């Protein structure tokens, strides 16, 4: 009977043929993203990094919302009141999404956390 092969960590393959919309973010956030993902992926127990991953997801969400929505208002010169109203609305949405994300991430096991990490890597390119 042949020896069992070790299973490599599961990483989703990018859907190269599918269209996508991605956002630009700071070099600091990119470095932090890869640092959190590497720590999680290299850990003996990925669950030790749930809080850091949840923080990262919230920060990426904030950055994406700013890039997709608030930046467009600035570029369109929609005005201070429109920008502030949108910022207030986005802030509420990010808080809600962050709260939900933290709960789900906080309940994930190591294998699930590795899948999330792999997905973020495919988005980060």
Structure characterization notes:
The protein has 125 residues and is mainly α. The protein has one domain (27-124). The chain has four helices and no strands. The longest helix has 28 residues, at 80-107. Residues 1-8 have low confidence and may be disordered.
The total count of helices amounts to 4
Distance between the termini: 40 Å
Structural class designation: mainly alpha
Query: What's the average pLDDT?
Result: 89
What spatial form do the alpha-carbon principal axes imply?
Answer: globular
How would you summarize what this structure contains?
The protein is an all-alpha fold and 125 residues long. It is built from four helices and no strands.
Relevant terms:
125 residues; mainly alpha; 4 helices; 69% helix; 0% strand
Could you give the topology of this structure?
Elements: H1 27-42, H2 50-76, H3 80-107, H4 110-124
Helix pairs in contact: 1-2, 1-4, 2-3
């Amino acid at each position: 009977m042949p020896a069992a092969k070790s299973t490599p960590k599961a990483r989703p393959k990018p859907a190269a043929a599918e269209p996508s919309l991605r956002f630009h973010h700071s070099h600091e956030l990119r470095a932090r993203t890869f640092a959190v993902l590497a720590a999680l992926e290299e850990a003996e127990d990925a669950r030790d990094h749930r809080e850091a991953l949840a923080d990262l997801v919230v920060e990426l969400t904030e950055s994406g919302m700013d890039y997709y929505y608030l930046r467009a208002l600035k570029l369109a010169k929609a005005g201070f009141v429109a920008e502030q109203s949108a910022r207030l609305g986005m802030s509420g949405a990010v808080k809600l999404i962050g709260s939900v994300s933290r709960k789900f991430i906080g309940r994930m096991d190591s294998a699930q956390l590795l899948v999330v990490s792999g997905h973020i890597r495919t988005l980060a390119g």
